[in-house]
Every structure is written in structure tokens, then in C-alpha cells.
Write a structure and sequence with these properties.
By secondary structure, the protein is an alpha+beta fold. Helices cover about 35% and strands about 25% of the residues. The strands form 2 sheets. The chain has a 6-stranded antiparallel sheet with strand order 1-8-7-4-3-2, covered by helices on one side. Helix 3 packs across helix 5. The chain is globular, with a radius of gyration of 20 Å. The protein starts with a helix and ends with a helix.
Length: about 230
């Protein structure tokens, strides 16, 4: 290959890497300030030394007490996640987003399970009404998918492999303005295998799509319920 073509390819590749990194940083911090991204939030202490952190946020024109009921009833088999329901159900997750607060779903305690799907869930690790909800868990991978992740030789249990990463999902409500709420959502991933990053990187882009819609879904419901 002529020298000028080699140089051109190197410049294009370098530019692509820079643009990807810029886009990635924006995606991981959608809707937040640098101060919010750097600030400690409830649940950070549960997973110190995280390998990847995403903090996203939105303003809600309703007080924290009007936002909290929508958070506490989240989950598969409960209020859903207020995101792209049709897309979730294409994956067989059986998610149904609630459009009203249900009293029977308001009692969530530390240690309770919040299901993501019928056979997968997280545990409520922090439940501070009107302030913070933090879910915690790990991500097991079916044993027949390990090769595609480059995890040859990983010890596996019956039907599934070692959890590649630990995870916390924090929903934090902060007073904003006279009667509003700043809703922050933070994901923290700590890798447990050498190949976990290859899984989490594409997951983080899917999370961007779903979280952005979820934030708007929570906001719209809280503001409408306020009247």
C-alpha cells in the first residue's frame, strides 16, 4: 500500500477512535453535568472500584414524593420500566408499563427482588422513600453463549456460566427548584471476568436507548399525576 494511503487510513482510524470516545462519554452522562457525574450517590459504596459508570438524569416538574411511587413499583410483573415496552416484549421479557400508581406495589423493602424478566432479577439494596432506590445483582450468562464472549475455559454451573460482572442500578431523587425533582440514574459495572468488558460495552449503548426513554416515561407520569 502506498505511503499516502497508509497515512490516510491511519488518520481516518484515529479520528474514528476519537469520535467514538466522545460519543461514548456523552452517552454515559446523558442529561447530567460534570459535577453530577463526579458526585457520590447512594449505592456507590456497594460496588467500589467500578470498571464502568453511567450517570444519566432528567428534570421533573413534580416533587420527589410524586416521583417515588413510580420508582418503587418498577419491575417485571409489576409496573414495568416505562421504556420501550414493545421492544422489551420482542425479547420475551413480558413487560407491561403501568400508567397509574398501584397501592399493592408500593411496599418494597431491602432484600426484596425486582424482576427484570421472569427468570432474572435484582435485589433492592437501598430503599429510602422519596430519596433513593438502589438495586443490586450480577449478570449470569447461558453456558452456550460463553464461546461468543471469548470465555473459553470459564467454570460454569448447570445451564449457565460465571456471572461476568456485578451491577448496581441507582435511582436518586434530589429536590430541584421550588417544587421539582432532579432524577438521576446511575449504573455501575464491576467486571468479574477478563471478557466482561466485551459484553458490557454494547450493553451500555442499549442502556442509553432504554434509559433515555425510561427517564421520560417516569417524568411524564409523575407530572401528569400531579395534575
Amino acid at each position: 500500500m502506498p505511503l499516502h494511503r497508509t497515512l490516510r487510513a491511519a488518520v481516518v482510524l484515529g479520528l474514528g477512535v476519537v469520535l467514538y470516545r466522545v460519543a461514548r462519554e456523552r452517552a454515559l452522562g446523558l442529561g447530567t453535568t460534570e459535577a453530577e457525574r463526579m458526585a457520590p450517590l447512594p449505592g456507590d459504596e456497594l460496588l467500589p472500584g467500578a470498571d464502568l459508570v453511567a450517570t444519566r438524569g432528567i428534570d421533573v416538574d413534580a416533587p420527589p414524593g410524586d416521583v417515588w411511587p413510580w420508582l418503587v413499583q418498577m419491575g417485571q410483573g409489576r409496573g414495568g420500566f416505562y421504556s420501550y415496552e414493545a421492544l422489551e416484549n420482542l425479547l420475551g421479557l413480558d413487560i407491561h408499563n403501568a400508567d397509574r400508581v398501584r397501592p399493592e406495589w408500593q411496599d418494597l423493602a431491602v432484600g426484596d427482588e425486582v424482576r427484570l424478566a421472569a427468570q432474572a432479577g435484582l435485589v433492592a439494596a437501598v430503599v429510602q422513600p422519596d430519596e433513593a432506590l438502589v438495586l443490586q445483582g450480577a449478570a449470569p450468562v447461558p453456558a452456550d453463549e460463553l464461546d461468543s464472549c471469548g470465555a473459553e475455559g470459564t467454570d460454569v454451573g448447570p445451564g449457565q456460566g460465571e456471572a461476568p460482572f456485578d451491577f448496581t442500578w441507582a435511582f436518586v431523587l434530589q429536590p430541584w427548584g421550588a417544587h421539582g425533582t432532579r432524577l438521576l440514574v446511575r449504573e455501575r459495572y464491576r467486571y468479574r471476568t477478563s471478557w466482561a468488558g466485551r459484553m458490557v460495552e454494547p450493553v451500555s449503548w442499549v442502556s442509553l436507548l432504554m434509559t433515555e426513554r425510561m427517564l421520560r416515561g417516569i417524568r411524564d407520569r409523575a407530572e401528569q399525576s400531579r395534575g
